[in-house]
Structures are given as structure tokens and as C-alpha cells.
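A quick aside before the break. I want you to see a complete sequence-to-structure record at least once, exactly as it would be stored in a machine-readable document. Don't worry about memorizing anything.
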Amino acid sequence: MKKYDAGSIRNVCFVSHGGVGKTSLLEAACFTSKAIAKLGKVTAGTSSFDTRADEKERKMTISTHLGFCEWKDKKINMLDTPGFLDYLGEAKAALRVTETAVTLIDAVDGIQVGTELVSRYIDEVKTARLFFVNSMDKENADFDRVLGIIKDTYGSSAAPLTIPIGRGADFKGVIDLVAKEAYEYAREGDGNGKKIDIPADMQEKVNELRLALMESVAETDEELMNKYLEAGEISDEELRLGLAEAVLGGSVFPVLAGSGLFNMGVDMLLTKIVTLCPPASSRTEIDVVEGDERKTVENKEDGPAVAFVFKTVSEEHLGELNITRVFSGKIATGNELSNSGRGTSERIGNMYFLRGKERTDTSEIGAGDIGGLLKLKDTHTNDSLVDKSVKYHVAPTVYPEPLVSTAITAKVKGDEDKIAMGITKLQEEDKGFTYRYHPDIKQSILSAMGDIQLDIILEGLKNRFKVEVERKQPKISYRETITKSAKYVEYTHKKQTGGAGQFARVFIDLEPMQRGEGYEFVDKIVGGVIDQPLRPSVDKGIRAKIDEGIIAGYPIVDVRVSLVDGKTHPVDSKDVAFQVAGREVFKKAFEMAGPVLLEPVAELKVTVPEEYAGDIMGDMSSRRGKIGGMESVGKLQHITAKVPESEVQSYSSTLRSLTQGRGFYSKTFSHYEQMPAEQAKKIIDVYQAEATGEE
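That is the input. The structure line, written in C-alpha cells, reads:
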């Protein structure tokens, strides 16, 4: 295969709401460019890219897939990302390693919630943006209406470069407004348009739109604007060059039309990608981390190697493939590189350019290119491989905070290690979920972006690692504390067993502290009423009780204990006696000091179309939420609220229902606050009933 420098490489990311046709478009692009021999279908399970068994079964992309093709002496790397909302983190990671986002818009449904969501990530990474109005073959497809929606949403920067000839069953081709040429396509043909005359009834529309395009481009450059004002037009070459600069600068978003499913207008998309979209060499800097400092460094084709692993896939009988973007320098077989984040080294072995499951061997991946590295020892998603002289690593992708959780236990006793191993392997491929044991609620919690992602993870455990789990609603991680002080509380521990006995007498003061201050032990003993070596034993006994709780079995926080007095026995006073006395005197004082339950409060940031804002705020109030603010951004409302964690465990499905799937939210821990007495009593009563039953 021919080698390409960074100036001849285009890295593009296909993004959209689920079901809009990204995988079909990638399939068509590779088929049109003769990179693959057959045009596969997602619905038939024959796509070259939805290769996982669960993807074939669900007819949806679950994991980012890489494909590449060659077109007009350029190499195009294309990343097909999942559109389902649970897997938005995949799109976020893919956008970081590409220079252009190709956003697919359905020709019937227009902009859907997944597209709105991923647009935020495009804004964050500031890549060039191109729209492809897909499925012009569908009944009720309406390019003009969808173009209007795009302009309403993204502003006048959205400019059509191709427009469809016909629609629905009558869709037969596209007109290139830049070249003023029309092309007709055979449905499910080889993808190469046959040049035809522009239909007479469309000539006026073409002239009008081309003039508008010329004006849009001229407005981005003072020299072009002067030429346009003087001559009334600019040349085709000036238009193309000006358009390329405007796309790179983010001042023009090209809009194209076609059908990925039937391979119509896809050759035009490929041509616009190579002629207008920024090359890999346009990314001159990257964000890196060195020590505790975040900074930007320059990319150089002839500089030291800097490569970033943005995705890991595991293939049966092959092992793990680290999908890697080389930002600077090059990596070659036999190179010894540093994993700069882990402080380890890796020797580069087999490397490939990837097209779905198809692998093309290569001995080198140069700056700007993307490829797969096989069987590295200890390199994972978000890791960097760099030259030994480089002391920094590429800033890792920060995935969205998981929103939905379930507690899991092994169905078969003894399978806990198999679960942990399976989860670790699955996390290599999907960084969008977390798994950890919570000691205070004594549950293993699996957290993901949504219920579908949870189902897929657990299916993976069952099908790939032969282990099944039981699911339960996670317990809430409450805390216990006090509301007033208890002074000079006494407890005497006395035990006589025939031989040496046990004796300890202690007096403590207990007082509340500010929220978040934790626990403090103060030794206020004056003189030798308790020997110095025995005083830490009191603290040790108290800490044991703090961990296990008193009124409801939850950890105790924000209390100060002062050891103020006591008594010892010359023979029977020992460490264990003072531990018992510490534990019991603390329990006694705690119950005297107005004990209460604290509940965790989450901060929710909810974004919804403005017509749903009232319903959302009403629902928040019913959940004991406190609205912090509301901000309008275009036709969306950003609502911030603080809501008890117990009230938002199933919020994902509620929000989907209230907004017809068009709302989204993020959730982070905010603080602990006192729980209303009525709710607290229910939890305390359940705990005490269980404790009595155990006894």
C-alpha cells in the first residue's frame, strides 16, 4: 500500500443519532472507492463494519469501527461511531483524533437528540463540520425542510454544496453547486455518478444557491469579498480554495445530500472530503499532560513519536488491538517506545491498517495516520506511546459520568473472580462504564450511561466469559451524624472470667462538626487517670463503631470526640478493654446527641427543548429538588438542580418519557444534607427490624 504523508490524509468521524445510517455510509464509501468488493447491509448482517455478534443481533453499532479508503490520491480514515445515547463516549473519543466531523441528518426526521448531544463534543474539540443529509430515498424525504432545520440550529454558516435531484422513490442524483454539474446514480450501483444535464426546472434554484454559497465564502475573506463586490462573482478555483479555508476555520459548514444505503451521492462526499476538509497536517498542536501540568505541544512529522491509543478492541483468536492515532513522528515495527502515563516501555510488533475486521499489514504508521497495534504488554485505551525523549502524554479522553447503576452478585458462589476478570476485559473495549465495590453499602455497583449499555455488558459477561449475575437496585450510601452535643458521657467496661479480668472506665464529650469535616479525636486527659498507651485504644474502638454505624448501619461523619476523664485498674486495664469501652461510650453518647441520617445530594444539569422546561421543573420539585438556575441556549433550556440521590436512581427513563427522548442530563455528587425525619424513620425502622431478626 502507498505511503501517505499527513498532508495527504483526511481523518473523519461519522456522528449522528442512532439509526441514521453511519455504518451504511461507511460501507458505501469503501465500496465506491473499491476498498471492499461487496456492498454489505446492516439489516442483513452482512456489513463489513458491524462485526460483533451483539451488533448483528441488535442491528446497531455498539463500538467505534475504523475503515479507510483511497480517493483521488488521498487516504481517508473514517471512524464509524455508535449513535445510541448510551455510547456517546465513543463518539467523544473518536472526535479527539479526527479533523472533520461528518454529521448525518435524516432526510425525514431532521436533527434528533443524539445529533444534538454529539454536537456539544464537536464544539469542544473544534473540528471542522460537514453535514450529510442521508436517506433521500425515503418516502417523505425533504431536503429543503431539513436544510432549514440545520440553518435554524447551526446558523447561516451551513451552506449546501450538493442538492438532490428528486426525492423518495424519485431520488436519482445530485447537483454539485461548486462545479455546476449534475450526476445520476444507479440504485445500489458502483457509486460513481453519471454526468447529466442539470434539469431545466432546477436551473434557477442552482443559480440562486450557488450565488448564496459564493457570498458565504466571500464573507470569510476580505480579499475575496473585494473581488466579489467588484466583479459580482469569484472564479471556481477561488470558490474552492476559499471554501476549504472557511471549512478549516469553522466559518462554513458544507451540507451534502445522498443515500448511503443505496450508494447515491457518496462519491461526491468523498470528493468534498479530500478537496475541502482539513488534512491531518492541519492539526499543529495537541493537549498533553506533563507531571501535573496540562499544556499544548507542537506536532511535527519529523519530530519524536507521539501516539495516542483511543480505542481497544478484542478479537477472538487474535487478542487485543490498540487503535492508535499518531500525532507526531512515526512508529515502526521494532521501535521501543515509552508508555509515558504508566512509566513502562513497549516494543512495537505487528501493526495494521484496519477496515472493519480486515487487516492490512504495515511496518510503519506515520504522523496523522491511524492504525492498530497488536498484543502490547500493558497499554490500554487513553494511554500514550512516545519516544524515550518525550516526558509527557496526550491528555486522556474524559468520558461522560455514568447515569444508571445496578448492584450485581454472582449467581454461582465462587464466580466473583470470573466476574472481575470479565469486567476488566470489557472495560478495555468500553470506557463508558465503571465497576467497583462500595464498602459502606456492601455492594458491587456496575454503572453505565443507560439500561441498554448495562444489558450489553451483562450479556458480554454471560456469552464471552460464561458467568451470570443477579441484579438488584443499589442501596443509597447514606451517612449518620448528630445535631447536638453530649457532655461527660460515661461507660465502664468490667469483665471477670476467673483469671485476669478486663476493666476500663471512660468519659467523653461528643459534639457535631461542620459538614464534610469527618471525624476528630481529641485527648484531653490531664494527669494519669488513663495511662498514655491506653488512650489510642479508645479512639480505635470509636473508629470501629464509626465505620459500622449506630442507628441505620451507615458510616458516621462530622463528629468530634474528646476523651476527658477515666479510670484504670492496675492489673485488669488493657488495650481490648479500652477498645470496648470506647465503642460503647461512643454509642451511648451518639444516641443522646440527636442522631440523624444524611442523604447524598446530586447536582443534575438537564438540557431539554424549551417546550419541556416546565414539566421538568415540576418533576424536579416532586423529587424534593431545588432548582439552581435556568439558562436558554438557542431553543434549548439548561436547568441546574440539586436533588437527593434516592430520587433520581431511575431518572434516565423518566427524562426520556417526559421529553420524548429529546432531553439529556449529567449527574455529579454535590454534598450530604440532613434527611427529612419521615423518610429517615423508614430506613431506620427497616435496619432495626433486620438487626432484631438477626439477633
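Two observations worth writing down. The chain has a mean pLDDT of 92. The chain has five domains: 6-202+250-282, 285-394, 404-472, 480-593, 598-678. We'll return to this after the break.
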